[in-house]
Amino acid sequence: MTELYISTDVETDGPIPGPHSMLSIGSAAYTADKKILSTFSANLETLPEACAHPKTAAWWATQPDAWAACRKDLESPVAAMTRYAAWLKSLPRRIVFVAYPAGFDFVFVYWYLIRFAGESPFSFSALDMKSFAMAHLRKDYRDITKTNMPRHWFDELPHTHIALDDAIGQGALFCNMLRENRSAGRS
Protein backbone atom coordinates (compact mmCIF):
# COMPACT_ATOMS: atom_id res chain seq x y z
CA MET A 1 0.00 0.00 0.00
CA THR A 2 1.18 3.49 -0.74
CA GLU A 3 -0.82 5.39 1.87
CA LEU A 4 0.32 6.72 5.21
CA TYR A 5 -2.31 6.99 7.90
CA ILE A 6 -1.84 10.19 9.87
CA SER A 7 -3.42 9.38 13.21
CA THR A 8 -4.18 12.76 14.74
CA ASP A 9 -5.43 13.99 18.07
CA VAL A 10 -6.04 17.55 19.23
CA GLU A 11 -6.65 19.07 22.60
CA THR A 12 -8.78 22.20 22.69
CA ASP A 13 -10.40 24.63 25.09
CA GLY A 14 -13.85 24.37 23.51
CA PRO A 15 -16.03 22.56 20.96
CA ILE A 16 -15.30 24.56 17.78
CA PRO A 17 -12.37 26.50 16.31
CA GLY A 18 -12.50 30.26 16.21
CA PRO A 19 -14.44 31.03 19.35
CA HIS A 20 -12.15 28.46 21.03
CA SER A 21 -8.53 27.45 20.54
CA MET A 22 -6.64 24.32 19.63
CA LEU A 23 -4.19 23.89 22.50
CA SER A 24 -2.13 21.04 21.09
CA ILE A 25 -1.87 18.70 18.14
CA GLY A 26 -0.21 15.32 17.84
CA SER A 27 0.11 13.16 14.74
CA ALA A 28 1.75 9.82 14.07
CA ALA A 29 2.38 8.69 10.49
CA TYR A 30 1.58 4.96 10.35
CA THR A 31 2.04 2.44 7.58
CA ALA A 32 -0.75 -0.11 7.19
CA ASP A 33 1.41 -2.68 8.97
CA LYS A 34 1.57 -0.49 12.10
CA LYS A 35 5.01 1.02 11.71
CA ILE A 36 5.39 4.64 12.78
CA LEU A 37 7.50 6.49 10.22
CA SER A 38 7.41 9.88 11.90
CA THR A 39 5.57 11.93 14.51
CA PHE A 40 4.66 15.58 14.97
CA SER A 41 3.52 17.52 17.99
CA ALA A 42 3.02 21.14 18.92
CA ASN A 43 1.49 23.16 21.72
CA LEU A 44 -0.18 26.30 20.46
CA GLU A 45 -0.76 29.74 21.91
CA THR A 46 -4.46 30.46 22.26
CA LEU A 47 -6.20 32.66 19.72
CA PRO A 48 -6.32 36.27 20.96
CA GLU A 49 -10.02 36.62 20.12
CA ALA A 50 -11.02 33.26 21.65
CA CYS A 51 -11.89 32.12 25.16
CA ALA A 52 -12.24 28.78 26.89
CA HIS A 53 -15.68 27.19 26.96
CA PRO A 54 -16.84 26.85 30.59
CA LYS A 55 -17.55 23.09 30.34
CA THR A 56 -14.19 22.42 28.71
CA ALA A 57 -12.39 24.58 31.27
CA ALA A 58 -14.08 22.61 34.07
CA TRP A 59 -12.94 19.34 32.46
CA TRP A 60 -9.36 20.62 32.13
CA ALA A 61 -9.39 21.40 35.86
CA THR A 62 -9.66 17.62 36.42
CA GLN A 63 -6.61 16.92 34.18
CA PRO A 64 -3.69 18.86 35.71
CA ASP A 65 -0.91 16.74 34.15
CA ALA A 66 -2.36 16.92 30.64
CA TRP A 67 -3.06 20.64 31.08
CA ALA A 68 0.53 21.29 32.13
CA ALA A 69 1.83 19.26 29.19
CA CYS A 70 -0.17 21.22 26.60
CA ARG A 71 0.80 24.63 28.03
CA LYS A 72 4.59 24.31 27.80
CA ASP A 73 6.82 25.25 24.85
CA LEU A 74 4.02 27.22 23.16
CA GLU A 75 4.23 28.21 19.49
CA SER A 76 2.15 30.71 17.58
CA PRO A 77 -0.54 29.05 15.47
CA VAL A 78 1.21 30.35 12.32
CA ALA A 79 4.54 28.76 13.28
CA ALA A 80 2.99 25.48 14.43
CA MET A 81 0.67 24.99 11.46
CA THR A 82 3.28 26.05 8.90
CA ARG A 83 5.65 23.52 10.45
CA TYR A 84 2.85 20.90 10.46
CA ALA A 85 1.98 21.46 6.78
CA ALA A 86 5.68 21.17 5.86
CA TRP A 87 5.97 17.94 7.89
CA LEU A 88 2.92 16.47 6.14
CA LYS A 89 4.27 17.38 2.70
CA SER A 90 7.64 15.83 3.54
CA LEU A 91 6.15 12.40 4.16
CA PRO A 92 7.05 9.84 1.47
CA ARG A 93 3.56 8.60 0.59
CA ARG A 94 0.01 9.80 0.05
CA ILE A 95 -1.46 10.85 3.39
CA VAL A 96 -4.83 10.05 4.94
CA PHE A 97 -6.09 11.89 8.03
CA VAL A 98 -7.35 9.38 10.64
CA ALA A 99 -9.01 10.23 13.97
CA TYR A 100 -11.48 9.10 16.59
CA PRO A 101 -13.73 10.99 16.12
CA ALA A 102 -12.66 12.61 12.87
CA GLY A 103 -15.65 14.96 13.03
CA PHE A 104 -14.06 16.77 15.97
CA ASP A 105 -10.32 16.60 15.33
CA PHE A 106 -10.50 17.29 11.59
CA VAL A 107 -12.60 20.43 12.04
CA PHE A 108 -9.87 21.98 14.19
CA VAL A 109 -6.95 20.75 12.07
CA TYR A 110 -8.50 21.82 8.76
CA TRP A 111 -9.55 25.24 10.11
CA TYR A 112 -6.11 25.90 11.60
CA LEU A 113 -4.27 24.69 8.48
CA ILE A 114 -6.32 26.88 6.16
CA ARG A 115 -6.19 29.93 8.42
CA PHE A 116 -2.54 29.77 9.47
CA ALA A 117 -0.73 27.74 6.79
CA GLY A 118 -2.93 28.71 3.85
CA GLU A 119 -3.51 25.11 2.76
CA SER A 120 -4.52 21.64 3.88
CA PRO A 121 -2.30 18.81 2.62
CA PHE A 122 -5.23 16.51 3.57
CA SER A 123 -7.53 18.27 1.14
CA PHE A 124 -11.13 18.01 2.39
CA SER A 125 -11.21 14.46 3.67
CA ALA A 126 -10.77 12.48 6.87
CA LEU A 127 -11.18 8.84 7.80
CA ASP A 128 -13.33 8.37 10.90
CA MET A 129 -12.35 5.31 12.94
CA LYS A 130 -15.80 4.93 14.46
CA SER A 131 -17.42 4.80 11.00
CA PHE A 132 -14.79 2.29 9.85
CA ALA A 133 -15.51 0.11 12.91
CA MET A 134 -19.26 0.35 12.23
CA ALA A 135 -18.81 -0.95 8.69
CA HIS A 136 -16.35 -3.69 9.69
CA LEU A 137 -18.40 -4.94 12.65
CA ARG A 138 -21.72 -4.48 10.80
CA LYS A 139 -23.30 -2.71 13.75
CA ASP A 140 -25.26 0.48 14.16
CA TYR A 141 -23.15 3.61 14.49
CA ARG A 142 -24.44 4.45 17.99
CA ASP A 143 -23.51 0.93 19.14
CA ILE A 144 -19.87 1.50 18.24
CA THR A 145 -17.92 2.79 21.24
CA LYS A 146 -14.43 1.91 22.36
CA THR A 147 -15.90 -0.14 25.21
CA ASN A 148 -17.88 -2.20 22.65
CA MET A 149 -14.95 -2.80 20.31
CA PRO A 150 -13.04 -6.10 20.37
CA ARG A 151 -10.32 -6.04 23.05
CA HIS A 152 -7.74 -7.48 20.65
CA TRP A 153 -7.90 -4.23 18.66
CA PHE A 154 -6.29 -2.34 21.54
CA ASP A 155 -2.57 -2.25 22.29
CA GLU A 156 -1.32 -1.52 25.80
CA LEU A 157 -0.84 2.19 25.16
CA PRO A 158 -1.82 5.02 27.51
CA HIS A 159 -4.66 7.47 26.87
CA THR A 160 -3.28 10.54 28.63
CA HIS A 161 -5.02 13.46 26.91
CA ILE A 162 -1.58 14.49 25.69
CA ALA A 163 -2.15 14.82 21.96
CA LEU A 164 0.81 12.80 20.68
CA ASP A 165 0.27 9.96 23.18
CA ASP A 166 -3.36 9.70 22.14
CA ALA A 167 -2.55 9.93 18.41
CA ILE A 168 -0.12 7.02 18.78
CA GLY A 169 -2.67 4.92 20.67
CA GLN A 170 -5.43 5.65 18.21
CA GLY A 171 -3.13 4.94 15.26
CA ALA A 172 -2.29 1.51 16.65
CA LEU A 173 -6.02 0.86 17.14
CA PHE A 174 -6.71 1.88 13.54
CA CYS A 175 -3.94 -0.35 12.16
CA ASN A 176 -5.29 -3.30 14.13
CA MET A 177 -8.77 -2.65 12.74
CA LEU A 178 -7.39 -2.29 9.22
CA ARG A 179 -5.39 -5.55 9.44
CA GLU A 180 -8.45 -7.48 10.59
CA ASN A 181 -10.65 -5.92 7.94
CA ARG A 182 -8.21 -6.71 5.15
CA SER A 183 -7.67 -10.26 6.47
CA ALA A 184 -11.44 -10.84 6.53
CA GLY A 185 -11.65 -9.67 2.94
CA ARG A 186 -9.17 -12.36 1.86
CA SER A 187 -11.09 -15.16 3.61
From TrEMBL:
Gene3D superfamilies per the UniProt record, alphabetical: Ribonuclease H-like superfamily/Ribonuclease H
Annotated protein name in UniProt: Uncharacterized protein
Organism: Candidatus Propionivibrio aalborgensis
Keywords: Membrane, Transmembrane, Transmembrane helix
Bilayer-spanning residue ranges: 95-113
A molecular function GO annotation: nucleic acid binding
InterPro entries associated with the record: RNaseH-like_sf (IPR012337), RNaseH_sf (IPR036397)
